[in-house]
Amino acid sequence: MSIEVKVPQLPESVTDATLVTWHKKAGDAVGRDENLVDLETDKVVLEVPAPLAGVIKELKVQDGATVTSGQVLAILEPGEAAAPSAPAPKQASTPAAPESKSNGGGAAAAKLAPAAKRMVEEHKLDAGQIAGSGRDGRVTKGDVIQHLSTKDAAPAAKQAKPAAPAVQLPAAGGSRNEQRVPMTRLRARIAERLIQAQSTAAMLTTFNEVDLTAVNEIRARYKDKFEKTHGVKLGFTSFFIKAAIEALRKFPAVNASIDGNDIVYHEFYDVGVAVSTDRGLMVPVLRNAEQMTFAQIEAAVGSYAQKARDGSITLEELTGGTFTLTNGGVFGSLMSTPILNPPQVAILGMHKIQERPMVINGEIKVRPMMYLALTYDHRIVDGRESVQFLVAIKDALEDPARLLLQL
Asked: Are residues 118 and 240 both part of a single domain?
């Protein structure tokens, strides 16, 4: 008896999804729980697994189509004959390059993130030769890019350096190619929220700078023992989140949100940490971050970042949040003005740590300095509060004992 494979129940705030790509075609054998298709919502990519082993009888929806909860995606004919090796003769008879045959399905395709799968198919690569850095060995887009760069560099190294050619001007009317592609749902959603933030909030940004000498000394002194004890590295993020929470306790308006004509003061601290991925910016949320230890914060941030990049993060892990941190410093940004993440009313921007000469007690000394930027909604956060909020973070980081004593 045939079984219908349907779109899973989407979260309440999500009305539909886009079918990104099928990993199987009609006639292919599948194993139980093997990923059949990727569905992209406004925030995450959902995988639809096979409910049991069998053969794909018919695909009801094509790539790029918009689907809703409960819609039939495919017809699956159950049966034990559907071993993974069953479709091998069919694939062997298909004229294709050796690389593309290895990507047709099975375990290799199942371990490819959606963006990575598109690049593998486009460049006709063998997914089995690409080392995956994602969860459970999942191959990400970054892994494919690294593989391509290594592959291209090898033959180039064997070539003798050619003589410098004569300089020639391009001929008039030469080819000038361009590509036009639609925005992904995530990119479109990001654009929508950015426009919403700029058009509805009275955004203003205030700046300060922090001397990270004390934090650097603590990390240098305890990083090895911390990692040995907790199994996670001691980074800067946990210090900034702890400092931000103490500042939010002192200035609750910065941890608030606007709901119509009401101001909602949150008595908990769900801190979002912006993560850059191949698909766009995502903001996983640390629930009740005030109850977490340094080790728990570092572990949670690392786990969420990996899940966001390999496409396995859930919608629930991205929703909510009362305050957000974003770190442009990892890309070399020295200063920026972050945009609010509605309905939140403030976001803290961290930047590159750079040694600069500073006057300390009348003497010029070189210190590791970072510019901080707080963008806030001036409708409910006053300039005085924003400045004092940043000063509170600065004080906590320059004297980390304050974090232990909650001063």
From this structure: no
